[in-house]
Amino acid sequence: LVRLRARLAQSQNAFGRGLLTLLSSDKLDEDVWEEIEEVLITADVGVTSASQIVEGLRTKVKVLGTRTPGDVRSLLREELVAHINPDLDRAVRTEPHGDRPAVIMVVGVNGVGKTTTTGKLARVIIGDGHTAVLGAADTFRAAAAEQLQTWGERVGAPVIRKEEGADPASVAFDAVTRGIADGVDTVIIDTAGRLHTKTGLMDELGKVKRVVEKRSQVDEVLLVLDATTGQNGLRQARVFAEVVNITGIVLTKLDGTAKGGIVIQVQRELGVPVKLVGLGEGPDDLAPFDPETFVDAILE
Ligand code: GDP
């Protein structure tokens, strides 16, 4: 968490500094409130949430008669944390059920960081003393299976793959079968992210899920979103949420953007918690998402 905070603080600096500068203005007048709202919108918090956060803050400042920048800062902190909702269950379910492994499907469009997240997540599971098998169900690009293979070798997890163009569902089935045979704790399935048509995507992810359910159950469907893609990323998220039941969001590339406000917007839109964040390309650059640590990093 200390590292998470340091990493986030680096990339969210512009966002936080803007807010803190405004809070230390001599007079908290209409212009300042408007500017705060603008900084929040620029950071991808979303128009509705930005306006609610500023309204909430204004009301509190007024009721409490607070003026010092320090006090206003802690009220803003409260307001931001409340909007991220600290009460949501953000645990990733990786525990096996008896002799059946937990199964996690990783979904999202190409390039958002699915394969990288699959590898990093396996690293966390193995680091905790558990076992994992990876399924390379993105069979449309040979490079995807290659890349997952490299991750498997790096973190010490077997990778189930087939030739390019093979049925993604059959790869998923084999991965779960292998997981059962080896008594593995968690099977992670890296899927293809071709957003060609909504029905195509729905058929494909639906089939992977149904086939997995012949052997075990799907415990998590993690939607991976690139934090740097803003509205475009949100549009993609909506399509995925329509075709499959998302249980959690992984927000990647938070290390390269000051637009961390997307956390608030995406949770609000999808009604699903951000569970993990990607903070770099390395094997240890995946962290559980913690609202308070996140907000503290912004307001550092
Ligand atoms: P996929 O097509 O969705 O499987 O995406 P990949 O896993 O291949 O990732 C695409 C690119 O994004 C790769 O160059 C990754 O190294 C990079 N990437 C993934 N996650 C992160 C992250 O959290 N931070 C940064 N900076 N880069 C990332």
Could you describe the 3D structure shown?
- It is an enzyme of class 3 (hydrolase).
- It comes from Nocardiopsis ansamitocini.
- It is a peripheral membrane protein.
- One of its GO terms (molecular function) is signal recognition particle binding.
- Part of the signal recognition particle protein translocation system, which is composed of SRP and FtsY.
- It contains twelve helices and eight strands.
- The protein has helices at 2-11, 13-23, 30-42, 47-64, 69-84, 114-127, 142-155, 168-181, 198-212, 230-243, 262-270, 291-298; strands spanning 102-107, 132-137, 159-160, 186-191, 217-226, 248-252, 274-278, 286-288.
- 49% of the residues are buried.
- The mean pLDDT is 92.
- The protein has 300 residues and is α/β, with parallel strands linked by helices.
- It has an eight-stranded mixed beta sheet with strand order 3-2-4-1-5-6-7-8, with helices on both faces.
- The structure holds guanosine-5'-diphosphate (GDP).
- The site of guanosine-5'-diphosphate has 19 residues, from helix 6.
Query: What coarse outline follows from CA principal-axis ratios?
Result: elongated
Largest sheet: 8 strands, mixed
The fraction of residues assigned to DSSP E strands is 5-15%
Percent helix among the residues? 40-55%
What's the arrangement of strands in the largest beta sheet?
3-2-4-1-5-6-7-8
Estimated radius of gyration: 21 Å
**Can you count the helices?**
12
What ligand molecules are bound, each kind once? guanosine-5'-diphosphate
The mean pLDDT is 92
What structural class do helix, strand and pairing data support?
A: alpha/beta
What is the terminal separation in angstroms?
Answer: 14 Å
| H/E topology pattern | HHHHHEHEHEHEHEHEHEEH
Number of beta strands: 8
Uncertain stretches of 5 or more adjacent residues: none
Family: Belongs to the GTP-binding SRP family. FtsY subfamily.
GO molecular function: GTP binding; GTPase activity; signal recognition particle binding
EC number: 3.6.5.4
Subcellular location: Cell membrane; Cytoplasm
